[in-house]
Description:
Elements: H1 3-10, H2 20-37, E1 42-43, H3 53-56, E2 67-71, H4 76-89, E3 93-96, E4 114-118, E5 125-129, E6 134-138, H5 143-152, E7 155-156, H6 169-174, H7 182-185, E8 192-199, E9 204-207, H8 220-224, E10 232-240, E11 242-243, E12 247-255, H9 258-272, E13 276-283, H10 284-293, E14 307-315, H11 319-335, E15 341-344, H12 348-359, H13 361-368, E16 371-372, E17 375-377, H14 383-397, E18 402-408, E19 413-419, H15 426-447, H16 463-469, H17 472-485
Parallel strand pairs: 2-4, 3-4
Antiparallel strand pairs: 1-2, 5-6, 6-10, 7-11, 8-9, 8-10, 12-14, 12-15, 13-14, 13-18, 16-19, 17-19, 18-19
Helix pairs in contact: 2-4, 9-11, 10-13, 14-15
Amino acid sequence: MNSLLFEISSISMPETAPSASKASTLHPLIDTLAELVGAAHVLTHDDPATDLSAWENDWRKRQQGRALAVVRPGCTEEVAAVVRACAAAGVSIVPQGGNTGLVVGSVPDTSGTQVVLSLQRMNAVRHIDSANLTLVAEAGCILHNVQQAAEQAGLLFPLSLAAEGSCTIGGNLACNAGGTQVVRYGNSRELCLGLEVVTAQGEVWHGLSGLRKDNTGYDLRHLFVGSEGTLGIITAASLRLYPQPAAQLTAWAAVPSLEAAVALLGLAHRHLGAGLTGFEVMSQFALGLVHTHCPHLRVPLWQDTPWCVLLENSDLESEEHARTRFEHLLEAAFADNLVSDAVVAESLAQAAQLWHIRESIPLAQAQEGLNIKHDISIPISSIPAFVAHTDALLAQAIPGVRLVNFGHLGDGNLHYNVQAPVGMDATTFLREQEDHVNHLVYAAVSQFKGSISAEHGVGSLKVDHLIQHKSPVALNLMARIKLALDPHNTLNPGRVVRV
């Protein structure tokens, strides 16, 4: 491994400016970067008026890094030139989109020696092909803007997340983001037909064909999606579009147990088929936090039931057809005692309000205090047993612990979060209990044959846990791929897999 790169990417230093000798070595790189992208788009700590915190702090405030510079290229050719310059200088790069990630995978370390490469200026929708049902967007394009561009063309881009107003397409693909409609449309990976990628050597792979069938060798697209910027830098993507549904109906149902929620999901599949686009589950405590911290939101049915379910039916035929199928589903659910009460949104505004309640759970939890987050997936049939088992383990280990359990039951993805007991300082709880809680939860995930990361990625927070919970053969293959594509460990070192 290149010795200079190893020094730069591996040594943790206090959050102070580099020494004079280091600064004199690295400033020529900054001058080069300014020539490549324009001085206005290279931000450093040399200017006291420049605040880099938006690029150096992760969204959850778990880590505050320090960058040598933040570089904001405006096109793919500039990205490639920046990568070549950093590689020549032996300086590692941290690619960054909207910086909304939850696993500390898109901010620099504290050494002051890494370049943050922000894709935010590359935010154009380049092309929409309505006949091919594809849209080409640059990596810095905000997800909501992609959704709107598709809608203006009379089409649907179905990826939907709570952070859709600030997260970017490049970040979504880098982490293989999921969201609320995976049950019908799949993760980001399934919504991507092609990529444009800058390699660790500064070459550009032009793979934006938008073809649904291409059997000419390895599918490189799938390799880069989910790699979190460790194998290459996504600069644009060809995205799969769908026809707009004729009607979307949303229902909120109270269910007596997780077992009933799983049975209701099966019933929904039988009654709605491909029309079932979302199926979310929320615990009473999670909804109670929304009731407490977001009093302007009127949370329905939550006080008299341990769980609530939010489900969505998209119909290509008509609203009448959609409503008839929804009514038949709910009638069957009541008859089987799977639902104790339910409300169906009578307008798009009411539906949006129900989804807003669901999406406000993370914000309400943050207002309650620091917490330990888990983004896990479990086989759907095993989720009730997993929750009962793990709840009991945590209650025994930490009396009074509070569990904020919610997520995408339709695809087996739970956000199984752990809140400090009432009266315990949240910072102290996090410091003293996080390792123990993670050990218990991840051991249970493995016992139930699940995954410790469903849609948030690995980043740096889970990279060491991966060693214990992923096949050694798989880890070895991942490390070999990393070294083959990025032999000098230039791209986002220390994330996803250690080499």
